[in-house]
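Incident log, support desk, overnight shift.

02:14 A customer reports that sequence design results differ from what the structure should imply. Their input is reproduced verbatim below. On-call engineer (initials T.W.) acknowledged and began investigating.
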């Protein structure tokens, strides 16, 4: 006998996470799983028991009316805000992203419609924002090491762009890939 569950506020307001691919196998571990996520603000519950599962090979679209909780969910998963309650699992292990940088270290990064890149600086500088730049003699930026670190990231995401290129000179696809990096 299956037990029915009550629709959450987000479901009643029309938030839908839709998978376009099926799980790889029944024995696989989800890449990302969110269980019973709750986020309260003074006088308002933004997320009410939200569940979400991402399996290897899946692509999701997150759709819903204004106020359905889409942005709140992404902010919680990517470490921008902390949930009131609930659990996030990455590869089956509980995590608590404390900041966007911490989430990125865990392998989670949100790419928004408008990429948060600074067009007037290089790809290398954009990718290192929020991190300590490598230093020479404890004072000067070690540009050679910085470019080497960034080149390793660019190689990992298979983006053939020089680390020294200004973001303003990138095409939309390249800028999106740098935002993921």
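02:41 Re-run completed on a clean worker. Output:
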């Amino acid at each position: 006998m299956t037990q029915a569950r009550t629709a959450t506020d987000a479901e009643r307001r029309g938030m839908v996470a839709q998978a376009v691919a099926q799980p790889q196998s029944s024995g696989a571990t989800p890449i990302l799983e969110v269980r019973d996520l709750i986020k309260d603000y003074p006088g308002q519950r933004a997320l009410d028991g939200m569940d979400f599962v991402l399996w290897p090979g899946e692509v999701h679209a997150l759709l819903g009316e204004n106020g359905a909780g889409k942005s709140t969910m992404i902010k919680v998963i990517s470490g921008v805000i902390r949930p009131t309650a609930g659990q996030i699992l990455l590869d089956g292990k509980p995590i608590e992203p404390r900041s966007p940088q911490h989430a990125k270290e865990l392998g989670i990064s949100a790419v928004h419609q408008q990429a948060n890149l600074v067009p007037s600086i290089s790809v290398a500088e954009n990718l290192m924002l929020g991190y300590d730049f490598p230093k020479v003699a404890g004072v000067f930026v070690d540009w050679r090491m910085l470019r080497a670190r960034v080149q390793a990231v660019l190689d990992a995401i298979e983006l053939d762009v020089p680390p020294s290129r200004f973001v303003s000179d990138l095409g939309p696809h390249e800028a999106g890939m740098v935002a993921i990096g």
